[in-house]
Amino acid sequence: MMIILWIILVAAIFMVLMAVIKKPGSVYKDKPEEKNPMEGKKVQFIEDESEDVNGDGVRGHLVAIGNSNHSPSFYEKYVKRCFDVLISFCGLIILSPIFLILSLWIVIDDPGPVIFTQKRIGQNKQYFKLHKFRSMKMTAPHDKPTHMLENPEQYITKAGRFIRAHSLDELPQIWDIFIGNMSVIGPRPGLWNQDLLTAERDKWEANDIKPGLSGLAQINGRDELEISVKAKLDGEYKKQQGIKIDIKCFFRSIGVLGGDKSVMEGSTGKIHEMDERTDELVSIITPSYNTANFIVETIRCVLDQTYTNWEMIIVDDCSADHTDEAVKPFLSDTRIRYLKNEKNSGAAVSRNKALREAKGKWVAFLDSDDLWKPEKLEKQINFMKEHGYHFSYTKYSEIDDMGNSLGTLWTGPQKIGKIRMAMFNHMGCLTVMYDRGHVGIIQVADIRKRNDYAIWVKVVKKCPAYLLDENLAAYRVRGSGSITNRQKNPLGRMKFNYEMWYVSEGKGKAAAGFLTGINTVFGIIKKIRYRKNISRV
């Protein structure tokens, strides 16, 4: 026992000395040119379209409108700091084996530094160096939020995908807490160039206190919150700061740690503000590749919807046919947007791009060769609103290239939770709709197949899916070269299922293999139980 106490004492002395040595450099004392010109100032954000886009995705700059006059309370200055030192010291000691294991994995996966440092906004707008486990490749841009990157998934390592999904990338910030740049509980520190977030927080005096590892905003929606809402919650925490709210945030944050964070990897939470129209807007996600012969019919089935408050986001993946000419006549309808990838990248990249562009409360999916019945959107929205559901799907039938019925109807379970979703993908992509206001912005890994299934796996972590027991869509069965072609080879299906679990969900090889086996077994059951024969029309 004495030996252990001596080891702890030596470790404590060493860490205190390191903190004293490292503290000045961590707040750029050795680099006065790096000092924030707005440090200690109250600020306001001024929009200016002539300037470059900042870390929040908007153009403009900050102007000083006064000085900060914050006076820390006894609790903030002494009690909270004592708790921070004690918790961070214990955390560094107890979690040291995990630090070692993750460090080795990161280096093996993508050689380079284990720790990633980034300039962030600290207390009173003082810049400091925030530490994270590196989760992105060495080639990734340094000071750009993940959500602003083109195809951000291409930069995330396999190790990084796992540690992000379980919030383990934040663990090195325990050191930032120990040396006094952060607190265990407080507003999450923004990037140095997130001017809009900084200004919004100033409205609520949230910049006056130390940033934290977790806070009131994180336990009330995490990154899917609008910036203004997040800033208000940070201000509410500042106003209530005390032992009671710190304990509440601490224990609720433990529930978040280890959970899936992939819904909004790296995002600032900037979701488009919704007016009365966009509050019920449906964003239709339509990837396109070589479907010129079908996309006109697909667009017309959307135009024929009885529910008219929609936007259709078509993302073309460098089609080699005349898709451009086929779509062009419809672009006079401002509800239809036509985007193009710079290079052929696959449906995952196209869907990710469209999901980032979406403005609606509701998100629906319709590939560029499939069809909806005119009442599809209206019935599905009414179904979800009536029952308070956030995620749903419908039955669908199959048609051939000419639009003729193949006599097949697909249905599924009345309710799909996380376990049932892991067993098999029962939902046709063209039938799915979810509430983006509840779920947040989804982004998936760059996988060529099963990327729709990868989306459902992420959404179901937020809410179960429910079946609207009605046939409202038609899936076009085609050969290769299209967005929606099915993999008929059983080994091919297993390969793509494995890739989905291993790459997109970050499962280990054994777990991915096990889930692939489960998918195969339940795929057979699905054909027996949920495939119905109907009369050909």
Walk me through the structure.
This protein has 17 helices and 17 strands. By secondary structure, it is α/β, with parallel strands linked by helices. The protein has two domains: 236 residues, no CATH class; 256 residues, Spore Coat Polysaccharide Biosynthesis Protein SpsA, Chain A, CATH 3.90.550. Helix 3 runs antiparallel to helix 4 and helix 6 crosses helix 7. The N and C termini lie far apart (81 Å).
Proportion of strand residues: 15-25%
Average pLDDT metric: 86
Q: Any idea of the CATH topology of the largest domain?
A: Spore Coat Polysaccharide Biosynthesis Protein SpsA, Chain A
| CA-atom Rg in angstroms | 25 Å
User: Can you name the CATH architecture of the largest domain?
Assistant: Alpha-Beta Complex
What topology emerges from the helices and strands here?
Blueprint lengths: L1 H25 L14 E7 L12 E8 L6 H21 L1 H14 L5 E7 L5 E7 L24 H8 L7 H6 L4 E3 L9 H9 L8 E3 L12 H14 L2 H14 L25 E7 L6 H9 L6 E7 L6 H5 L8 E5 L6 H11 L4 E4 L5 E2 L3 H12 L3 E9 L5 E6 L4 E2 L1 H6 L9 E3 H4 L11 H9 L5 E12 L13 H15 L4 H21 L1 E3 L4
Helix pairs in contact: 3-4, 6-7, 16-17
Q: What's the short story on this structure?
A:
The chain is α/β, with parallel strands linked by helices and 537 residues long. The chain contains 17 helices and 17 strands.
List keywords for this structure.
17 helices; eleven-stranded mixed sheet; 38% helix; alpha/beta; 537 residues; two-stranded antiparallel ribbon; Spore Coat Polysaccharide Biosynthesis Protein SpsA, Chain A
